[in-house]
Design goal:
Layout lengths: L2 H5 L1 H23 L3 E8 L2 E9 L4 H15 L9 E3 L2 E8 L2 E8 L10 H18 L2 H31 L10 E8 L7 E7 L5 E8 L3 H19 L6 H15 L6 E9 L4 E7 L4 E4 L6 E3 L18 E4 L5 E5 L1 H4 L12 H9 L5 H16 L8 E8 L15 E2 L5
Parallel strand pairs: 6-16
Antiparallel strand pairs: 1-2, 1-5, 3-4, 4-5, 6-15, 7-8, 8-9, 9-10, 10-13, 11-12, 11-14, 14-15
Helix pairs in contact: 2-4, 2-5, 6-7, 9-10
Length: 413
């Protein structure tokens, strides 16, 4: 190591901790490790800096690190990672001295690590060693990685807040079986949905989609959902007036060129009728009880947030026992595969027909699974939200869901 680094051990410890944390996470995800750990040298022993995935056997990892150190002492610097069965041990050197060791546990798929996996680890470690040889550059990059890590933690907390904004349970309403689920494509989402029981066994439900991604869409989504709940109680009987007020709020909240689509409806179980306002949200299907046709509920007004002069009408359709309403966002209807092919809306209808008796919670899962099959492993580009409401007629058909969080967390690739 250079004299500057020897004289500044605090710099080395702080800088390597930030870099090792990022490197071990990225490598473990790329090669599919069940767990990984980074250890930094402290004299003749090693101490864990960061672990990823399943909890590893710390004592065995430390012993493996010390073995790598002893193997290296008095010998030429190792140039390749060392395999121990289905695990991988990789020393990291700086000016000929080992200062850290990365260990990777078995692959989650159960297969052995490939030559390509080992080459990826070796090349990454070589770049890291070269980077740390330049104290100024290493410090700058480590500081940026620390800032990015703080941002990721803040976004994760914001995502948790978003999850808590969405409904956590479906209140029991005789004759109705309903469910909603939202899956964000990134750390934060712009989709939302909501349920509110009304008088006489009625149900108010909403699904919406704020255009764009990231923090701006998430903030507008939170503002609209909170405003919706404040306005629903006093204006339940006047759906267009409620949406009109939400449009004004969206116009005040949203940055330029940011808008939202929304479908807000009320199912009157006793009357057997659905009243609704659709603010540019076209992806709503009413599948009739014979499953042979579907009625598309068209927009009754423009999107929210573009103009305070927008006017919203109200639609109304009769409901019959066995009818199924399916509302989704464009993350489903506009999903595209690797070849650029757009999902046919008929896939949604076919999924409903294939599972005519499935409860709403299962039917929503089948629809999302159908989209996943269409994507064929490709990560979705947009948030995906689905709301399913089944209109039943017999008490034996009434279903209630246990309390649970309806918004599934995003799994970053």
């Amino acid at each position: 190591m250079t004299n500057d680094m020897i004289n500044n051990p605090d710099w080395l410890a702080k800088t390597t901790a930030a870099l090792l944390t990022q490197v071990v996470v990225d490598l473990a995800e790329c090669i599919g490790s069940a767990w990984a750990i980074a250890m930094s040298a402290r004299g003749s022993s090693f101490l864990p800096v960061f672990s990823f995935g399943l909890d590893p056997d710390i004592a065995r990892c430390i012993a493996a690190g010390e073995a790598a150190m002893n193997c290296h002492t008095g010998q030429p610097a190792p140039s390749s990672s060392h395999l121990r069965g289905s695990e991988m041990t990789c020393p990291i050197q700086l000016d000929g001295d080992i200062f850290a060791v990365l260990l990777f546990g078995p692959r989650t798929c159960g297969a052995e690590y490939t030559v390509r996996d080992r080459d990826l680890v070796n090349q990454t470690v070589a770049h890291l060693s070269f980077l740390l040889s330049d104290e100024r550059m290493a410090t700058k990059i480590a500081a940026e990685l620390s800032r990015l890590q703080r941002t990721k933690l803040e976004l994760a907390s914001a995502r948790e807040v978003q999850d808590r904004l969405l409904p956590s349970r479906c209140p029991f309403i005789p004759g109705l079986d309903y469910y909603g689920e939202s899956r964000a494509a990134g750390e934060l989402g712009g989709d939302f949905f909501d349920f509110a029981p009304g008088s006489g066994g009625s149900l108010f439900f909403t699904i919406g989609d704020v255009c764009g991604k990231g923090v701006p869409a998430a903030l507008v989504m939170a503002g609209l959902l909170a405003s919706l709940r404040l306005l629903t109680a006093p204006r339940r009987g006047d759906l267009p007036a409620l949406v009109q007020e939400l449009n004004r709020i969206a116009w005040e909240l949203s940055p330029d060129h940011v808008y939202a689509t929304m479908f807000h409806g009320c199912i009157d179980r006793l009357e057997g009728r659905l009243r609704y306002v659709s603010a540019g949200h076209g992806a709503v299907l009413l599948v009739k009880n014979n499953l042979r046709r579907a009625v598309r509920l068209e927009s009754t007004g423009t999107v929210l947030g573009l103009s305070t002069k927008a006017v919203f009408g109200q639609g109304s359709v009769p409901l019959e026992p066995g009818d199924i309403l399916v509302a989704v966002t464009d993350g489903i209807t506009e999903a595209s595969d690797a070849e650029g092919q757009i999902l046919d809306e008929g896939v949604i209808l076919a999924t409903v027909k294939d599972h005519p008796d499935a409860p709403s919670v299962e039917l929503a899962g089948y629809i999302i699974a159908a989209v996943d099959n269409f994507l064929r492993g490709r990560q979705p580009d947009d948030d995906r939200t689905v709301v399913v409401v089944r209109f039943n007629d017999r008490e034996a058909d009434y279903r209630t869901l246990p309390p649970r969080r309806l918004c599934a967390m995003a799994h970053a690739a």
